Structure formats: C-alpha cells, structure tokens
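My current task is to audit a protein record that another person submitted. Alongside the sequence sits a line of tokens, each denoting a local backbone shape. Where you disagree with what is written, explain briefly why. This is what I was given:
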Amino acid sequence: MNQRWRPSVTVAAIIERDGRFLLVEEETSGGLRLNNPAGHLDPGESPAEGCAREALEETAWHFRPTHLVGVYLSRFIKKSDGEDVTYLRFAFCGELGAHAPERPLDEGIVRTVWMTADELRASADRHRSPLLLRCLEDYLAGVRLPLSSIYCDPSVYEVG
C-alpha cells in the first residue's frame, strides 16, 4: 500500500540585533550544528504562533513574528535508515522581546550564539540545514511578506 507523502512542516525565526543573528547550536546525528531557532509546527497553532513558541523554547528569548520572509522546501535522505525526508519551512522575522534566562533550553540545544552574516556564511559547513543561509540572504535582501499571507482557517484551533 502506498503511503501519502507528507512533508514535515517547520517554522524558523530570523532574529537580528545590532547586526548579529540569534542562532542555536544543537546536537545532531552529524555532531554539533548551527540553526535558526526552529522546530515543528504543532497542532492547533498558526505558523507565526509556532515560530514564537519555538524561539522561546530553543533560545529563552521572547520573539514576536511581524513578517513572513519566505516558504522553503528542502529534502534529504537520512544516512541512518535511508528515510526520505522533506521539510517545508516557514521563516519569519520580527521583534525580539525579553530574555528569560531561567528557562531551560529545549533538549539537544547546547547553547545560543549571536553571529554576523559574514560569520554565518563562513560557517556553512556547520549549518544543520541549507535553508539557514537562504533564509538569511532573503532577509538581508529585504524580503518581507505580511503575516496575512498565511491564512489559518478557524478549524485549526478547534479541538477534534
């Protein structure tokens, strides 16, 4: 029986402060990697809500998405078991809020780091996803779409 193809929907925050970008360094099967604060969209939340939640969980910084930077698709084959994985990423920029240093970071997150665009470009071999750099370049090019570009039907918030 054929299974229906379903990409993993993820959300990512592009957070800039004083010319530096907030990233996470995380444990992966390939070792320590850099990534945007990002994660999977949960049931019952919009992509912007999921992005704010993931940013807080992974960095202990409050974040309010104000614009959609883009929607991205990537695919890879897991070396461990040959699984074919596709990610559909919604990337947002927005306003950095208060830091909550007492909050523990998500499992697997080693630390947060602030890096310049040039430092990010120079560390591409350490990126968890090829989308990290693409999202950054689109952000730096000024790509900003209104949050209303993503429509969430009320059924998203209904308990089944």
